[in-house]
Amino acid sequence: MSFGGFDPHGSPQHRPMGEINMVPLIDVMLVLLIVFIITAPLMTNAVHIDLPDADAPANHPPPEAVTLAIQADGSLWWNNEAISAEAFDARLHALAQAGEQAELHVHADRNARYEAIAQALARAQRAGVRKIGFITLPPDGAGATP
Q1: How far apart are CA 86 and CA 56, in angstroms?
Q2: pLDDT tens digits for 85-102?
Q3: I need a labelling partner for 68 at 20 to 30 A (CA). Which of 23, 45, 59, 87 fits?
Q4: DSSP tag of 66
């Protein structure tokens, strides 16, 4: 059986075949079907293994973050509650002594003096607070204020 010749005028007997032979494709599909039929039952059987017991402590959710807002006049707000300098130090010590320490999120007013922010951070460091983060607004100014 020839698929074509070099005869430019070609007779109808020697023209190239213009259709796809589907027999090899059907053979491959049948072989794949048989392979899947044989392997599918093997995948449904679970392998039973004897797992060891673990004595790991349960995961506890982390404590909620504490919000410290520093206003432009230097006043301090602990979780939206105005506090004095003495109460601030007492709460910092209580926060540092907690088993799992909560994060201290610092919201500072744009017009707050750097000195007030630095003093608040120094007090937190002296009290032993290890997790401190600064909260800012995105450049477009969108977002909630403390």
Answers
A1: 40
A2: 889 999 999 888 887 778
A3: 59
A4: E
